[in-house]
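User: Run a structure prediction on this.
Assistant: Running it now.
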Amino acid sequence: MSPWAAAVGHELRSAGRERLPQLLLMIFIGMSAASAFIGSAAKATVTEVYNSAAGQGLTNAANPFGNVPPLYYARNTVIYILLIGALLAIVIGVQSAMRDRRARTIDLVLTRLLSPAGYLGAKMTGIGLGLLAVLGASALISVVCISAVTGSIPAPDQLLRLLALFGVAWLFLLFFVALGTLSGLHASSYTTALLVPIVIWSVIIFVLPLLGTAAHPVSLLNPVTPPAAPLTGIFALTGSLTGPLSLGEQFKHVAAILLKDPQATGTMTGGITVILAFLAAGISAVVLTGRTSMRKELHD
């Protein structure tokens, strides 16, 4: 077995033994499974209220949930990816880097026929494969739950859109893995290594969208439809500056189009480009970390 393949395998095995990522993983998969049933409960409640109002002659409008497509029940999964999934990715990245620094195995590993870039690339590959397996399981659970709620298996086109959603989520979460790994490689303590990427995550997901829109903060938890920035005033300027940096909003916009949200407009090209740019920058920063930084002393 080559040193690179051995490093990938070691990363997969080590990540599977970490307790905190396992806890977040169970929460993420559990919430993904509950997503369809939460949507189903919302539909049942609205339908009950509608039937009551229609029975009393208070409305002639059609039931808003009368023709809900199956992909509607995957909407809440988007916000779970933004919140729980991103935090899971950060923790995995931080612990991956901290694991070797605490055990002081870097010097031994780098004496093998493997460069620092090759070793860090192998770590990212191992984490990426593990994350892909997690998202694959979440996608399968989502299909099963949607089928149980609607009483039929989604059509092939809907299945492809659902798989595409989790594929884009994989690219989105890999950036946060890289962010966590980078913090774990350079931080002087475990607390700092966790705190810094979480602060950056909160800025990207919550602060930047608020700087570029006049939306109420609670609206940022909308699972698919990003708030629209005003066309005039200070928000027109800040929106043009912070829009491309609002990675979470870009992901939600792509998800909205994939899930056929009726309020979604435009194309996925810009959002996917931003996600890939963030990912490329994050992975490059990790892989280009020098030997000296990898051997930096850790203060617990």
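The chain has a mean pLDDT of 81.
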